[in-house]
Specification:
191 residues; alpha+beta; Hypothetical Protein Pfu-838710-001; eight-stranded antiparallel beta sheet; 6 helices; 8 strands; 28% helix
Length: 191
């Protein structure tokens, strides 16, 4: 189980990118995630559910779009949440040949699409620190920082605190929630 943090950045995309380059961060790669979240629950019931419950009862169909290829997969995310913060995540995924066919299968089985989240991701690196700058239409910019290899023998709570410290070292105007639930934020904003 990996530990990660996600925090909102209250600056526009171009300003963030300029600050990162100016502070020695290199753009390593970029891609788009086109995610479709499905649940067995009706949308009216899903609106009333807690994030952890809704996500635990959801499947994700994901397209990873790069400049020269698209990878398609189906995923299940099992997040560990303590005191409202996501302190760990286990992802189970499998490649698929046709994500639109998988979506049709899920819908035919009675599952409901509760959110589509399109994320432009830019991976920046400097030394041991590597993170994604994520830009989501209608929500804004976020930093997603996963634990580096050197954290693997630490407890989840220690990892979480160290990741927060790393994020706070960035020259950016960050929010105070280091456990942003982007898909849930998007779902709530649309419903």
């Amino acid at each position: 189980m990996k530990t990660e943090i996600t925090v909102q950045v209250f600056e526009d995309e171009s300003k963030i990118k300029t600050k990162l380059v100016k502070n020695g961060f290199n753009l390593v790669k970029n891609f788009i995630l086109d995610d479709f979240y499905y649940t067995k629950y009706t949308l009216s019931r899903a609106k009333k559910m807690a994030y952890k419950t809704l996500l635990k009862n959801s499947l994700l169909v994901r397209n990873v779009i790069k400049h020269d290829s698209t990878t398609q997969m189906i995923c299940y995310k099992n997040k560990t949440i303590k005191n409202g913060e996501v302190v760990g995540e286990e992802k189970i995924s499998s490649l698929v040949d046709d994500s639109s066919l998988v979506r049709k299968i899920l819908e035919s089985a009675g599952m409901n699409l509760w959110c589509e989240l399109v994320t432009k991701s830019y991976i920046y690196s400097k030394g041991e620190m590597e993170f994604a700058l994520q830009v989501i239409d209608g929500l804004g910019c976020f930093i997603e920082l996963e634990e580096p290899k050197s954290f693997e023998n630490m407890e989840n709570s220690e990892k979480f605190e160290r990741l927060k410290t790393m994020a706070k070292s960035l020259p950016l105007m960050l929010g105070s929630d280091f456990s942003c639930k982007k898909v849930f934020m998007k779902f709530k904003a649309e419903n």
